[in-house]
Amino acid sequence: MDYGIVNGKVYYQDRWVRADIGIKDGEIRVIKKKLDVDVYIDAYNKCVLPGVIDAHVHLRDMNQKHKEDFKTGTLAAAHGGVTTVLDMPNTEPPTTSLDAINQKEELRRDTAVHVEFFGGIKNNLPEIMSMKDKIIGYKIYMDSTPLHVSKPELREIFEFFAKNKINKRISVHVDDSELTKRIGKQKISEIRGIEFISNLSRQFGIKVNICHVSTPEGIKIISQNPNLTCEVTPHHLFLNEENFGFADTNPPLRNQRDIAGLWKNLDQVDIIASDHAPHTMEEKHEGAEGFPGLETTLPLLLNAIVCRRLLPSRLIALISRNPARIFGLTDKGEIKPGYCANLTIVDFHKKYKIRGEDLYTKCGWTPFEGWEGKGAPTHTIVDGRILMKDGVLLD
Ligand code: NCD
Ligand code: ZN
Ligand code: ZN
Ligand code: ZN
Questions:
Q1: Which one of 17, 92, 234, 267 has the fewest CB atoms closer than 10 angstroms to its CB?
Q2: Domain boundaries, position 378
Q3: Which of 250, 26, 253, 286 has the alpha carbon at shortest distance from 143?
C-alpha cells in the first residue's frame, strides 16, 4: 500500500462501518477492519465519503477568464471537498464541436480535480456524434441564451438521439421560453418546460436529467417518468427570494413555501449540484445571473445533516453515487476495491463560517456570506493524491 486511511467511519456497501482503507497507485485496494501501514491519514472521529461529484459546474476560462478559469475553478473544487466536476458548455467559445472539446482537454491537463465535459447542442447534429466519446453527457438550453434551442428543434434532436441510439444522458435547462417572454420567469415556465421534455423523453425513449429544478411541482412531474432524473441546487434549498439583494440566478430563488416543498420532496431528487456560475461583483451589480457554489455545497449540506434535515446516506447518494451512475462514471461514486481513489473526508464536529475572502473561486464572493454551521470537509483526495487538508490546499 502507498498509504492508509485509518480509524474512520467509512460508507461501504451501503452502510457505515469502522474500517481502514488501503490506497495504492491512485486506486482503492482494500477496505478492512485493520490495516497494517506505516503511512496513514488518521480519520478518527471523521467520516470517509466517496469523492464528491459536482454535476453542474461552469468552469468558464477562455474568453471569460476574468470570471473563473480551469485552475481557479478546480482549486475551488478541491477546497470544497469536490473531486470531480462536470463542466458546462455555455462558454465563450461554446463547447459545441470536437475542436472545442479538444481545446478544453488542453486546459484540463494540469487541473487539480477530475474534469468531465458536457457537449452543447445547438445547430450541430453532425458534431453530436463526433463529440460523443469525449464527453459524459449533452446539454441543452431551452432558455434564451446564445445556446437556446427551440421546441421544434428539440423534437428533431430527440429523434436524432433515438435513431442513432445515443445512450449518453442529456441534461436540460428547462424553460418554456415563450411563456417566460410573456410573463417573466415564473414557476409555470419551469413546470411547462419540464412537461414538454417529459413528453419528448417518453415519445422517443430518451433519458434526460433536468437541471436545477426549483419547484416542488417540477419534482413531482419528474418522479412520475422513469426516463427522467433531476438536480436541485443548494441555493434553491437554502435561499429565498427575499434574503438576497443581487439580481439573482436562473431559475430564480423561490419563496419559503416552495423551499419547504423542495426539502419535503428531496427523496425524489437524484442529484444535488452547485450550478457553480461565477460572475464578478461588478457583473452581478449589472444583473448577471448565477452564484458560485463549489466551496459551499458540502458545508451547507453537512450542517443540514447535523440539524437532522438530511440523512448521511442520502447525502452520499445525492452528491456522489447518483451522479456517477447517471453520467456513467464507472469507477467513481462508491468506496470499493478497484475504484478510483477519489475520497472526501468530513468532520461533523468542525464549525465553520463562510467568507467570500476565504474562497478560491476567482469571483471572490458568495451568496452565503457570514453563514455559520457545523460539518466541513477536512481532506480532498483525488487519484490518491491529497489535495486539501484541514481547509488548506497542498501542492
Ligand atoms: C448560468 C451561467 O451563468 O452560466 N447562470 C445561472 O443563472 N444559473 C447558466 C445556467 O446554468 O443556466
Ligand atoms: Zn441553467
Ligand atoms: Zn448552470
Ligand atoms: Zn482517477
A1: 267
A2: 3-48+340-393
A3: 250
How far from chain centre, in Å, is Cα 165?
A: 26
Model pLDDT, residue 132: 97
Instruction: For residue 115, give the ligand nearest its CA.
Output: 4
| Per-residue pLDDT tens digits for 138-179 | 999 999 999 999 999 999 999 999 999 999 999 999 999 999
For residue 117, the cross-strand partners are 87
- Closest ligand (CA of 339): 4
State the angle between helix axes of 256-264 and 216-223 in degrees (0 to 180), rounded to the nearest 10. Answer: 30
pTM over cut 0.85: yes
Judge contact between 118 and 143, C-beta under 8 A. Answer: no
Confidence of residue 386 (pLDDT cuts 50, 70, 90): very high
The enclosing domain of 356 has a CATH number of: 2.30.40.10
Give the residue whose CA is nearest to atom 6 of ligand 1: 290
Residues 285 and 352 reside in one and the same domain: no
Examine the pLDDT at 245 and tell me if it is beyond 80: no
Mutate to test the pocket of ligand 1, among 67, 275, 361, 363 (most ligand atoms within 8 A of CB): 275
25 in a structural domain:
yes
Structural domain ending residue among the three candidates 326, 349, 369: 326
Residue 242 lies in a domain: yes
Active site annotation includes 390: no
The cell 476567482 sits on which residue? 362
249 lines ligand 1 (CB under 6 A): yes
- Ligand 4 is an ion; its neighbours by CB within 5 Å are 340, 383
